[in-house]
Amino acid sequence: MPPRTRFLPYQPKTILNKGPRADHWFWTRYSAYPYLGCQHGCEFCYCREQKFFPHKTPGAALPAYDAAADPFSHLIKVKENAPQLLRKALARLPLDVLFTGDYQPAERKFGLSRQMLEVCLDLGFPVFILSRSPLVLRDLDLIQAIHRRARAMVAFSIITTPDSPDYARVCRMERLAPPAAKRFAAMQQVAAAGIPTGTVAMPLLPGLCDDDANLQSLARWTAGHGGGFMLGSGLTLSDQQRQYFFGVLGQLCPDLLAHYQKIYPPGSYGPAGPGWPPFGRRIRTACQAAGIRHRIPRQVVPGEKRSLNKRVAEALADALYTLEIEDAPQHRIWAYRKAAWAVDDLEQELGLFYKTMGRKGLESLPGIGPGMAEVVAGMIKTINQQDSAN
Ligand code: SF4
């Protein structure tokens, strides 16, 4: 018998996390969530890590994790003042994409995700929502309104499909979340409403859903339900989350426990083995076969003054991602990363900057040398040509 969920009223002082610029995976610069803890309780969730664990007492040592009570999934802190804090924080910031929305069951009762979206609509902020639940459909009207004004995207966390022979076993790992088939059905409705959507396949669990057949199936189901992309990555394990997960694995998939203990030796975070590049290539191959992207497209607010900066930064980040999964030398990867940051950080509009300052102007940006200036100039030209053709 699982423990009863308890909701703890909570009045934090701040709500917004802010990066120096948008990240290169979800293209979000800000994030804000209304709940701490998650009733979906996915057994692999990284939020049980000490670093993210929501029930820490400042200054006190963390007690051993109580696996039976699983406080992460049954003790939910409700940030009652989330919409007000968000409004205050966003009012002072430049427009960029906010990672928000939390559609665990608590949202039916408290409705804070919807109120936070209303703030985004009021202030004209673009949003990125990642959901493991069709409950997000309740707010489709609001998400459409945000998309018309500032852009919105709704992705679904899905790591397997009903076609997989291990579907039932994976479902047991996320047994409190709505089944994957329902999430795909929700994706179809989001796509039909004109909102960009796709799959975030994280974490792809070794031996359960990281095989080519499942990747191909995920990509096919995504394309078949109107999704335009699938972004994937593997499982990370750390401190108390590792202990918890190994305990669950011993109960649900005892045949895999020794394998996991071998590929996640003590002190490791990611799995031992061939590493990320071949995995990234397999995800790309699956996406290409299904005709979808293996990267999330960047959202740019219509009419935004620095839209060219953002699009060139996106092209540079896509190029660096390709270099990463092709196992290119680190110095080449870093050259593209630094260039993407420099272009994103440039306060002037990139097209005008290039027109007035020329190639030398690009070379004056941090981390951009003559070779990269040529790459950036080429990207500006290509994007301008595409725009003129449309
Ligand atoms: S839905 Fe996401 S946040 Fe919630 S438990 Fe699952 S992985 Fe963690």
How does this model look, in words?
- With 390 residues, the chain is of the alpha/beta class.
- The protein folds into 2 domains: 285 residues, TIM Barrel; 83 residues, DNA polymerase beta, N-terminal domain-like (DNA polymerase, domain 1).
- 46% of the residues lie in helices and 11% in strands.
- Strands 2-3-6-7-8-9-10 form a 7-stranded mixed beta sheet. A 3-stranded mixed beta sheet has the order 1-5-4.
- Helix 8 packs parallel to helix 11.
- The longest helix is centred in the C-terminal third of the chain and has 20 residues.
- The protein starts with 5 loop residues before the first strand and ends with a helix.
- The mean pLDDT is 95.
- Iron/sulfur cluster binds next to loops.
Name the strands of the widest sheet in spatial order: 2-3-6-7-8-9-10
Ligands in the model, by name, code or SMILES, are: iron/sulfur cluster
Principal-axes geometry comes out as globular
Mean pLDDT over all positions: 95
CATH topology of the largest domain: TIM Barrel
Could you give the order of the helices and strands?
EEEEHEHEHHEHEHHEHEHHHHHHH
Number of domains: 2
State the end-to-end distance: 59 Å
Output the CATH class name of the largest domain.
Answer: Alpha Beta
Q: Give me the CATH architecture of the largest domain, please.
A: Alpha-Beta Barrel
The CATH homologous superfamily of the largest domain: Aldolase class I
**Approximate strand percentage:** 5-15%
Number of helices: 15
Helix content: 40-55%
Please give the largest β-sheet.
7 strands, mixed
